[in-house]
Amino acid sequence: MAEPLAPGAPPPGGIVPLFVPELRGNEWAYVKECLDTNWVSSVGPFVDRFERELAAAVGARFGVAVVNGTAALHLALLLAGVEPDDEVLVSALTFIAPANAIRYTGAWPVFIDAEPRCWQMDPVKLEAFLAGECRRIDGALRNRSTGRRVRGIVPVGILGHPCDMDPILELARRFELPVIGDATECLGATYKGRSMSEGCTMACYSFNGNKIITTGGGGMIVTDDEALAARARYLSTQAKDDPIEYEHGEVGFNYRLTNVLAALGVAQLEQLPAYVEVKRAIAQRYREALADLPGLSAMPESPDVRSTFWLYTIRVDAVRFGMDSRALLRRLAAAAVQARPLWQPLHRSRPFLGCQAHQVEVADQLAREALSLPSSVSLTADQQQRVIGALRAAAGAVVERA
Ligand SMILES: *Cc1c(COP(=O)(O)O)cnc(C)c1O
C-alpha cells in the first residue's frame, strides 16, 4: 500500500497526497512524558494504557501491543495452533501482510474471493470451499485436493469496511476453526453496531503510518481469551520464564511495542472518533461530487456497516467512463493528485503463485477497476476540490474526444 509522504513535505500548491498521518493531539505531551520519566522501552505505563484503551475501543477484553501488524498476525496464527504445512483461508484481495504471516508459520494460504457488493471476503465462497472442497478425516478438517489440514480463517476488512462477520463466524463454529480477524483497515468502523474483532478468536491491528491512527509502526492483538492474551505477551517477549535467571520456555520473539510508540498510540486513539467523522464527511463529498459521472461508482457501504472509508476508493468502468483506471491514475498524477490502485490479488503475487485460489474472479476485477483517492484526515476542502476537479476534467476530456 502507499507509503505516506514525509510529514511536513512542502506543499508547493503541490501534490495532494493519498494519505498522510495527522499528529496534532497529545502526541508531543505523551512522548515528552516518556522521555522525562525515562520509560522509553518495551515496558511502561503507555504500553499498558494503549492496550487497555484500544481493547476497550473495539470491545475486546485484552490487548497485547506488538511492533507491527504483521507481527500481530504472525503471533495470532501461532497462538491459534497453525503449524507447518497447515492451510489458512484468507482474503484474496488485501495487502500482502496476512498471507506473509501465514507463510512465517510454515502454513499455506488458500485465497478466498471478495464479494462484489462490498468487496470483502465472500462468505458464500468460503462456505463453498469448506463444505465442498474439505472433508473431516480423523477429526481434522482437510483440503481434499492438497490433503493438508485447514487450520483457520483470516477475514480481512479492507479499506475501512468490515467483513460480513456473522456468516463467517457461523462457518467457523460449524467447521471448528479459529477466526483471526485482520481488522487493521476498519479500526473505528462498526458491523451491526460492533467492531469487526468482536466474535473473532483473536483480531489484529496495525498502526503503520498510513493507517487511520498511527504509532509510526505498531500493532495489537485483541482477544477475549485471557490465556491467549497471556501467551501472546509471553511469546512477544522472548518467552522468558524467569526474569532473574533468564530461563526461557521456548523460542520466543522480540515483538513488544515500546512505551514511546504506545504514547503516540494513546494520543492517536483519543482522536479516532473525530477522525472517523472527518473521513465519513470526505467520503460524502466525493460521493456527491462524482455521482453524475458515468462509469465511476461510489465506494460501497453495507447497510449493516458504518465504514470509516479509510481510503475512499472508486470503481472505474473503462467502457462507460472512456478510460481505464490506470489511464485515470496517470491523468490524476499529471494533475498532482496521488491516487492508487488496490493490491495485486494475492494469488497472482509471485510468492503465492503455487497456492490454491478458490473461484477468485471478483478480486481480479476490483484490482483492475478500483482507484483509491486522497483521503487524509487533514485533506482540505481545496485539496479535495482539486481531486474532484481532476476527475471531472478527465471525464470531460473523454467527452470532448468522443
Ligand atoms: C497495513 C496492514 C497490515 C500490516 O501492518 P504492518 O504494521 O505494516 O505490519 C496488515 N493487514 C492489513 C490489512 C494492512 O492494511
Notes on the structure:
The protein is of the alpha/beta class. The chain is 37% helix and 15% strand. The chain has twelve helices and 17 strands. It has helices at 27-37, 45-57, 69-79, 97-104, 123-133, 165-174, 226-236, 259-290, 318-321, 325-334, 362-369, 381-401, and strands spanning 62-66, 87-91, 108-112, 134-137, 140-143, 150-154, 180-182, 190-191, 202-206, 219-223, 240-242, 247-248, 296-297, 305-306, 313-316, 357-358, 370-372. The strands form six sheets. It has a four-stranded mixed β-sheet with strand order 1-10-9-7, sandwiched between helices. Helix 4 (97-104) links the parallel strand 2 and strand 3. Helix 2 (45-57) packs parallel to helix 8, helix 5 (123-133) runs parallel beside helix 6 and helix 8 (259-290) crosses helix 12. The longest helix has 32 residues, at 259-290. The radius of gyration is 22 Å and the shape is globular. The two termini are 35 Å apart. The model has no long low-confidence stretch (mean pLDDT 95). The chain binds pyridoxal-5'-phosphate. Pyridoxal-5'-phosphate is lined by residues 68-70, 94-95, 97-98, 156, 182, 184-185, 206, 208, 219.
Helix/strand layout:
Blueprint: H1 27-37, H2 45-57, E1 62-66, H3 69-79, E2 87-91, H4 97-104, E3 108-112, H5 123-133, E4 134-137, E5 140-143, E6 150-154, H6 165-174, E7 180-182, E8 190-191, E9 202-206, E10 219-223, H7 226-236, E11 240-242, E12 247-248, H8 259-290, E13 296-297, E14 305-306, E15 313-316, H9 318-321, H10 325-334, E16 357-358, H11 362-369, E17 370-372, H12 381-401
Parallel strand pairs: 2-3, 2-6, 3-16, 7-9
Antiparallel strand pairs: 1-10, 4-5, 8-14, 9-10, 11-12, 13-15, 15-17
The structure holds pyridoxal-5'-phosphate.
Pyridoxal-5'-phosphate binds next to helix 3 and helix 4.
